[in-house]
What does this fold into?
Amino acid sequence: MPESANSPARSAHRDGGGPTSDAETGISRRRLIGTAGATGLVLGAGGATAGYAVGSGDGDGAAPLSSVGAGRVMFHGKHQPGITTPLQARGHLLAFDLAAGAGRKEAAALLRRWSATAQRLMAGEPVRTAGGHDTGIALDAGPSSLTVTFGFGHSFFGRTGLGKQRPAALDPLPAFSSDHLDKARSDGDLWIQIGADDALVAFHALRALQQDAGETARLRWQMNGFNRTPGATERPMTTRNLMGQIDGTNNPKPSDQDFEQRLFVPDPPAAGVPGWMAGGSYVVMRRIRMLLDDWEKLPPSAQEEVIGRRKSDGAPLTGGSETTEMQLEKTGPDGKLVVPLNAHARITRPDQNGGAALLRRPFSFHDGFDPDGIPDAGLLFVCWQADPLRGFVPVQRKLDRGDALSRFIRHEASGLFAVPAAPAAGAYVGQPLLEG
Amino acid sequence: MPESANSPARSAHRDGGGPTSDAETGISRRRLIGTAGATGLVLGAGGATAGYAVGSGDGDGAAPLSSVGAGRVMFHGKHQPGITTPLQARGHLLAFDLAAGAGRKEAAALLRRWSATAQRLMAGEPVRTAGGHDTGIALDAGPSSLTVTFGFGHSFFGRTGLGKQRPAALDPLPAFSSDHLDKARSDGDLWIQIGADDALVAFHALRALQQDAGETARLRWQMNGFNRTPGATERPMTTRNLMGQIDGTNNPKPSDQDFEQRLFVPDPPAAGVPGWMAGGSYVVMRRIRMLLDDWEKLPPSAQEEVIGRRKSDGAPLTGGSETTEMQLEKTGPDGKLVVPLNAHARITRPDQNGGAALLRRPFSFHDGFDPDGIPDAGLLFVCWQADPLRGFVPVQRKLDRGDALSRFIRHEASGLFAVPAAPAAGAYVGQPLLEG
It folds into this structure.
């Protein structure tokens, strides 16, 4: 390791990260870098990235973690982690159904176990699973910005006798003409999103949480996803998807005045919204298969007309850079709109959807290939909003009526889950619902 | 980005990397870090890792890549890349069969296309695929230590009329009692290994190479794998697998006197070995499913007896650290051998196998889950040797007779491929075979 980088790397680390925090309990898997401790990612600062700094020897012979491993996200806070946390390199989405005979009491015990496990996992500490011991898969690694996020699906409430606590926002999503939904990979009583910058850390969390489910809940479906590795690209804010397109440009920014209001249920909630959702959010998950053979046959200029943005840098076709406003009325020498009426980026603009806004936080997926050799690949579209009826639903309705992108994609699975606020210290996720 | 880290990070980078090299042709996707250019990973230095350094602004306002993105492996050299290259975070294994009607001439043209594409991909340059344009999936990213490695399977030689050039070492592997092989995911005419530290860079390469295959070859099978993300752990040499065990401790080291001899066919080859394999190697690939539910039910102490090494640090149960020699005859207070006779690490020791040695260079895999909820996960075991009959075969024969690990794993797919030396500049992989 480069001893010469010692001090500057540390200060760089501090510059790049947010507030730091010590491990909460027990001994962290690994000593983190010097005084910087951990890259304390600021919850609520969705657009921020950690400053990825090189670790350097500190004199005792062991090489410290670089901040990829040292990155740590807090489990407790205002909102659950994994919503405004910067995109991670690896992700798992899982849904569980309660087992026959398991009701509110068993669900409460499960959420208590899961919360305790998630807290330890996110601190980089070993966990005790149903087998009584940690699997060891994450040994040596730092927390690697692991987040674990829990949600409740429509069917959860009936099964637990909590029907009166079910938010209207969990009503099933309308059918869309582009839907080719596989029920077995959609919905579910309970939802977990795992994200981390290291694939083994993420898998370790998946196994621990799965074992915690024990006899209480059965895995319904599970999906794997990925984004760029930290440091592989210069782009700090947005990722690319497997169509080669920059993804997430129009996301709400933490600096937006209404950022909190668009993403999270207010505290106290509006009339008619159950109190346990104060500070919570709703997630819509869609497995969007990309028809890559068809897409890749289009010349890049035609692909750009489908999207309305340049492939190279995500700038609108009307010019500027990624963050430049699109000139909706601008026409070209041929008198036609530069950004066609059915361009994906035009249709999804908030001002074209009555102000509807959602935070896209996707993972790409690639699960082998079809018999014709085409990859079974695309986007695990994950989006967050305070109310799906003012977020995903109006946007998807509009896309459904005339998105140029629709002939290159296929929605294959869908889920809508209520994601309550983070628990207070000593409490567990959903406690106000399950013990309210 | 941390301006203050500028100079030290650069020097750290130089310290950590090997010789640097400019892009060979065209314009690289991204300007790499200052004068360091690229982390020129030294071919042949299997154990070395790149020094992961933070990039720093160079005054023109654009943030440079950290060395995760800047890491570059050379396509030309003595041996093909991806053999002694340090483990990468993401991997794809693919096999193709020649299409009906495609023979030696078409195969030669394909290998020429593939070689040109691989060279550009590994330099971080855009490629021209069958569709005539780059997919854009790797835009913004550096080469990210991408490697592309090509091999020829037993069936290739008959189909191309090159039967006389088929090395005896490609004779089918013997059957093992633990085999549960799926033919559809085994063997194949042509084999490609893709590795990179960024999942999108790896997928970009996969699509480009797949499109290059055009009508000449059809995808037979394809597998995805992963290892730790650079910087997630302090361990530079070995990785962990999904059993939580350190993997690869007994690998030959570049500093071993016989490293080259164990891994690569000599130049000129021994009598009876075709000349086109000079400087080449043989790869054995096994999809090894881990029966994780059974494994995880074992207490860690019992797991350690199965392996013969400590989970925490990979040290032999007879003490020391990961690199300490195992004391084969040492007994405990109960008079029993400390490392049981059927311990995996005892059986696989080179001195227990007539000196057989192979270089393990695996990826973990995780492809969803079985109906019973158990992950379809394990190890894409990839090993390299100068001669499989003095590498994989004797070791696996011995394991087959009494490895304590065997009841926790299942070999589900298998492949054996001849991997020729790297081509000279201007030549393509396998040219001495196809035009010899």
Q: What stands out?
A: Chain B has a mean pLDDT of 85. The longest helix of chain B spans residues 104-122. DSSP finds eleven helices and 13 strands in chain B.
